[in-house]
Design a protein that fits this description.
Elements lengths: L3 H7 L3 H34 L12 H10 L5 H4 L5 H16 L4 H10 L1 H10 L12
Helix pairs in contact: 2-7, 3-5, 5-6, 6-7
Length: 136
């Protein structure tokens, strides 16, 4: 005679198949998202006169981004300090928007909160790089 525990133990593998299918789907979605973000950043760097491949090198990409917006290189250290990095990220988003002729609000909303959309708009849109002098 089968009881409920025996039936549940026999069907234990069904969750693993479900997780494998949807885990793989999630990984594919994440990879697509990453490729789109890299392409957008690559295009932004090229518009700013920097090498596009710099967008795929960790830490160096932040260094180049700081050069694009005209901030000193030592700001890179601030990205490794908890809570300070949050504030610095907002400032960098605002400055990036300004060097491409956009407003501070545009930078906060589209480059900080919805960054993939903002990066795609900067990289593939009609925004032109105006240099660090546009921040002032």
């Amino acid at each position: 005679m089968l009881n409920l525990a025996t039936i549940l133990l026999q069907n234990e593998d069904d969750g693993g198949i479900f997780a494998a299918i949807f885990g793989g789907f999630g990984m594919i979605c994440w990879l697509i998202f990453a490729v789109i973000l890299i392409a957008a950043m690559w295009k932004i760097y090229v518009k700013a006169g920097k090498p596009g491949w710099a967008a795929i090198i960790p830490i160096y990409n932040i260094w180049v981004l700081l050069e694009i917006i005209g901030r000193p290189g030592w700001w890179l250290i601030l990205f490794f300090i908890p809570f300070v990095n949050f504030v610095i990220s907002i400032i960098v988003a605002i400055d990036l928007a300004k060097v491409f002729g956009k407003s501070a609000v545009w930078g906060i909303v589209l480059l900080f909160f919805f960054n993939v959309i903002g990066f795609l708009m900067l990289g593939f849109g009609d925004a032109t790089y105006q240099g660090p002098d546009a921040i002032k």
